[in-house]
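Case 377 in the screening queue. Each case pairs one protein sequence with one candidate compound; here the compound is coenzyme A. For every case the pipeline is the same: read the inputs, emit a complex structure as tokens, and attach any notable structural observations.

Predict complex for case 377.
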Amino acid sequence: MATATVVKGLEGVVAANSGICWIDGYAGVLAYRGIDIHELAEQSTFEETTYLLWHGRLPSRSQLVEFTGKLTEARRLPSEIYDLFRRFPKTATPMEALRTAVSALSFYDPAESAVDHDSNVRKAFALTAQIPMLVAAFDRIRKGKDVVEPDRSLTHAGNFLWMLHGKKPIPAATRTFDIALILHADHELNASTFAARVIAGTMADMHSAITGAIGALKGPLHGGANEAVMKMLFKIAHEGGDPVEYVRSLFAQKKKVFGFGHRVYRTEDPRATHLRKMSEQLSRDSGNTKWYEMSRRIEDFVKNEKKLNANVDFYSASTYTTLGIDLDLFTPIFAISRMAGWAAHVIEQLDDNRLIRPRAEYTGPEYPVKYVPVEQR
Ligand SMILES: CC(C)(COP(=O)(O)OP(=O)(O)OC[C@H]1O[C@@H](n2cnc3c(N)ncnc32)[C@H](O)[C@@H]1OP(=O)(O)O)[C@@H](O)C(=O)NCCC(=O)NCCS
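Case 377 output:
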């Protein structure tokens, strides 16, 4: 039997050519289409960044106006989706609701199984506009509130906060949220994007690929980590314990601390640099510095003790909480943003497709094992 070198978790394996996102894990550099994430976070918007991810270059002013218009125009949901949400059990989480609703949206797509470039781009607009609507609508329906219709005069970020809270967000909240969307928009072959590419590679449709990506994002080792971070902070506050002692006891039990460590970064995750600043600023502005200060103490301790850096999920937890967002919406919010990157990757995959089908090193019983009929077992 031939033996191969197995790379557990595909660590370091290069599985695709891609012109979308570049990461230098040692230098802590993340760039979309060559542009440093710090420049985008400081100067761009989610809409412009999405154009960049999909088209490979920044738009001219008129291209941006046209692109934003198409994205705004795509803010439509079939009413059946709201009915579906109303029928979900009370225990349904926003992430389960989102995953199911994205899958269901393919019923209403005019060319559900089409995988040509133009169909993919059209679906990318639709889903990017619809995912924030789904997240906000589900949250309001589960709380017995009326669904808030989108406001086409608001940006992607501002409109989500409007649909979620039912009141117009202040500009500072919109900008903070917009930056969070930029920072989460793409990250090369992370688990959910890889899942999306594997599904698209079979020539399955965009809705299937995005449904699978949402399933992958849900796990606490990936996008679910931001929710897990906030649960930890709430637990520490509830028990009235010391954050450092709490984390020390996790280490003693050989447990992981969510929001730390990364498969690719060996230094600070550049997204965490921004989110730390945002969390600090917001907490000062709101007069509630509790979550930020607790996070800082945990970060210093984990860094000293384990040489592990905070990742994108650590400070997004305190940032979103200070923005008044419930913790089980954190991962769906990650999906709102990452939809831009998932779409870019599905489009890139299908523009030059080859089925993704690796091999496994077989470790089962040695061939041939004789079949024994059930009466003789
Ligand atoms: C992100 C993550 C899954 C990367 O995993 P990975 O590349 O497979 O690395 P490993 O899980 O093998 O970790 C390598 C070592 O660091 C330790 N480590 C990594 N992240 C850790 C964490 N958050 N807390 C405690 N220890 C951690 C592991 O225990 C392991 O130690 P060991 O070699 O003594 O066994 C991992 O760091 C993690 O689970 N982090 C917490 C979840 C999280 O925040 N996910 C969001 C990522 S953006």
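Case 377 observations:
- Residues 295 and 315 are 7 Å apart (CA to CA).
- Residues 117-142 form the longest helix (26 residues).
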